[in-house]
Every structure is written in structure tokens, then in C-alpha cells.
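Observation: inputs received (chain + magnesium ion).
Thought: call the complex predictor directly.
Action: predict_structure
Action Input:
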Amino acid sequence: MLFLFDIDGTLLSTVGAGMRCMEAAGKEVFGEGCHTGGVQFAGRLDPLIMREMLANAGLPPSRENIAAFRAAYERRMLETFQTPGLGRSMPGVHELLKRLDAEFGVTMGLLTGNFEKTGLLKVRACGIDTARFQVSAWGDDSPHDPPERNHLPPVAVERYRKKLGRDPSRVVIIGDTPYDVACAKAHGHIAVGVGTGKFSREALLDCGADHAFHDLSETEKVAQCLLSA
Ligand SMILES: [Mg+2]
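Observation:
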């Protein structure tokens, strides 16, 4: 069984720090025009957010521009997260992850729009042990152009196969936005929604989640749901 958790809005909140670093990095490298106006963040891939911010500045999403943007963003994030207490884990997250650690036959991973380095930084800032996430797919792992979140589940499944030498019996994707739900359903996986981001439990069920919770605080109920999903 493979459980893939989204990061922002699902495991944790950076209370806007991630977004502020993205905006500051864009402006630092490309000027004031590279702003977040009209750009949606929730559930989106970091490289796509950068493309849209570059478009705001009238700049192309060239490899060089994205690389410079990314380097500045990583620098800002490293600086910002030196301050302790910036990340806040969502209710029940620590307990649920610990409960699942103990479960035989479960592999956990992250499926997220974050780049690996900055994604892990956020997770660690909340005191979550990242060693338990054995198989992950990151914001820049799509093999296609333009990249989409829907491209990421097969990347994670392929990594599982390489690591364990077999297919996962089931894949469950846990996330807080319709994008998380859609990327699970696009590949016949199970989508579990959690209403700790910008979308309610009901909204996530309406867009096709197989199960959804207000938050992850009812450890045993959520664990049983994931294990039997
Ligand atoms: Mg999210």
C-alpha cells in the first residue's frame, strides 16, 4: 500500500511564509512586475506558479529564468525558515503519521507541488520526521511540458516499483484541494480529502474524493479509512 500525502494545507501550513518567499524571490530577480497577482497557489506546482509570475512580468518561462527564480526562492526559504516556529502542523498529523509508521505493508511518501528541497524544509520546520517518506513525487518531477499535478502519481508509483520490486496493492492520495483529488482519480487511485486548506470536506467530496475529513485529528478513524480504502 502506498500513501501519498500533499504538504501545504494537508500536513502543515507555513502561514503564508512560502508564498511571501516566492513573491520576494520573483521581485528580487525579475523586478516588481514579477508579482503574485492573479496567481493561484493552492494545489498548484511550484514551477507553474513561477511561470505565471514570469508571465505577469512579460517574461518567458525559459529554463534560465526558472533556474534563477528557483535559486532565489530556495535562498529566501532557507533564510526564512531559520526562524523556529514558522511551520504549523495540521491537527492530528503527528499522531496519524506515527500510527501509520507502525503499520506493516504501508509505504508513505509525499506528492506535492513543492520542489524537493523547499518541500522538505517546510516539513522539517514542523518537526515531522521526513525519513518515513520513502517514495515521493515533487513539483518538478513531471516528464511533460507544461507540467501538471496529474503527471505525478505515475512518477511515485514507478519509484515504489524500483524500490520494492513490485506494484503497490493500492495507492491512496491525501490532499486538501480538487487538484489532489483529480490527480488520484486520473490514475484510478483513491482520493482522501482533508478540509484544512482552502476547501471544505464537502467541497472535496463534491469534486470526487472517495473519503474526506474536516481534519486528521481522529487518528484511529482516519487510519482505518486509509488502511481499508
Ligand atoms: Mg495542498
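Thought: report the result.
Final Answer: The mean pLDDT is 96. Strands lie at 2-5, 12-13, 88-89, 107-110, 171-175, 190-194, 211-213.
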